[in-house]
Design a protein that fits this description.
Bound molecules: adenosine monophosphate, glycine
Distance between the termini: 49 Å
Strand content: 25-35%
Structural class: alpha+beta
Number of strands: 23
């Protein structure tokens, strides 16, 4: 079978690596991929941008691709799956209509309200004056969200009224994100611990993947600006077996039933970003219609099942037949970024130390990397995700950081505390000798 992975980040490196490990897969193309995917066995990059649906469809036709798996949200929200279906080509990912769960936060909020899925109280505005006056009524802290896709930058957690007012004006008046800011959502600020709950869905059939937790803030101690994610680990001990059942009953099952009731067919990965409060109640912060990045890297390092088989089962509506196998160890990934990310950062810096690091139980997934003159250089904000297995999160953390310290380039940046919540829990439970 020939597979195509759409995207060029760390998540797509993990997808391509795991698909290539399947005996049924003879070749994996990645569009556009990165230096990491270029170096994997059975994997070849093709220089097509992930948003270029026309060229991707043409490529799939010309190469006779049997299975396409889409990493990022933009092509899904823009209808790549619909296009591939017209061509009778298998493409794993929701249709444009179903991807509205991520593509429009207003749609997602109304969906959750309609189907009684726990989330933060909210109101939607397209008028600056009304939004400002509601924000004043709410008072800080509150959360201001752009309705549409804004490359991960459309959410402002406002700790002061001035921050909220600025965010509202930037979206509605200054049109900072264009049409994505036609409407804003003002939402209650929720406290607790976040977790990522990602499933493979085929209409009413749901196959939950291993649990995980991301670290969105750029700096140690969850400080600094929000990013796409600075590191992740799996499993997330905040999700106890009892909470897992609760999430299935109160979030995942009502979501899948709700989609069905609304006449929306959903096939692909579905990611519920959750806030777990002190009482252990889950609330949905957002839906994503795709795998998380960097959550996928530690999750797939633990996945022992054949990924091509899982994808095929989802597309065939046969997920109920599948039982996934997971490595019982924990996995933890540290994102190494270019200094300055998520704002301005340099590219083209030579990365040293790669040859010495990529060996079991460590896997270095590439994101913003390219090959120039035979050397691997930086080409994006998030550059690598150094991922390791360990007997628990503490051990995985220690192994991952040993490798991080062997990797160098000009102004490389990483958080020193990925996994801190799980490590604190393990220490409190005596799972780790100090
Ligand atoms: P979203 O893209 O909606 O997940 O928001 C990005 C990040 O903003 C989340 O991962 C949270 O860290 C934060 N966030 C979003 N909504 C809320 C909320 N209602 N309360 C507190 N934090 C939030
Ligand atoms: N890591 C967060 C996301 O993929 O949206």
């Amino acid at each position: 079978m020939k597979a195509l992975v759409v995207g060029g980040g760390g998540r797509e490196h993990a997808l391509a690596w795991k698909l290539a490990a399947s005996r049924a897969v003879e070749k994996v193309y990645v569009a556009p991929g990165n230096a990491g995917t270029a170096r994997e066995q059975k994997v070849e990059n093709t220089p097509i941008a992930s948003a270029d649906i026309d060229s991707l469809a043409r490529f799939a036709e010309n190469q006779n691709i049997d299975l396409t798996v889409v990493g990022p949200e933009t092509p899904l929200v823009n209808g790549i799956t619909d296009r591939f279906r017209l061509l009778n080509r298998s493409c794993l990912g929701p249709t444009q209509n179903a991807a509205k769960l991520e593509g429009s936060k207003a749609f997602a909020k109304r969906f959750m309200e309609r189907h009684q899925i726990p989330n933060a109280r909210y109101q939607i505005f397209d008028n600056t004056g009304k939004a400002l006056s509601h924000a004043r009524k709410m008072g800080p802290p509150l959360v201001v969200k752009a309705d549409g896709l804004a490359a991960g930058k459309g959410v402002v957690v406002a700790h002061t009224l001035a921050q909220a007012e600025l965010a509202i004006r930037q979206l509605l008046d200054e049109r900072r994100f264009g049409a994505a800011g036609d409407r804003v959502i003002l939402e209650d600020f929720l406290t607790g611990e976040e977790a990522s709950f990602i499933c493979l869905v085929s209409n009413d059939q749901v196959l939950p993947l291993a649990t995980s937790q991301d670290h969105k803030a750029r700096d140690a101690g969850d400080a600094g600006p929000n990013t796409g994610g600075m590191g992740a680990y799996s499993p997330a001990p905040v999700i106890t077996p009892a909470l897992y059942e609760r999430i299935m009953q109160q979030v995942i099952e009502p979501t899948v039933r709700g989609l069905d009731r609304d006449g929306i067919s959903y096939t692909g990965f579905l990611y519920a970003g959750l806030m777990i409060d002190r009482q252990g109640s889950p609330r949905v912060l957002e839906y994503n219609c795709r795998l998380g990045d960097p959550e996928t890297q530690p999750i797939f390092l633990r996945l022992q099942s054949d990924l091509a088989e899982l994808c095929g089962a989802a597309l065939a509506g046969e997920l109920h037949r599948i039982k996934t196998q997971w490595d019982s160890r924990a996995a933890l990934g540290v994102v190494m970024a270019a200094g300055g990310y998520p704002s301005d950062y340099a590219t083209g810096d030579i990365i040293n130390g790669l040859m010495d690091t990529d060996d079991s139980p460590v896997k270095v997934f590439h994101a913003g990397t390219a090959i120039e003159g035979g050397r691997v250089v930086t080409s994006g904000g998030r550059v690598l995700c150094v991922t390791a297995l360990g007997d628990n999160v503490t051990a995985a953390q220690s192994t991952a950081y040993q490798s991080v310290h062997n990797l160098h380039w000009n102004q490389a940046y990483f958080r020193p505390d990925i996994g801190h919540r799980a490590v604190a829990r393990e220490q409190a439970n005596g799972a780790v000798s100090l």
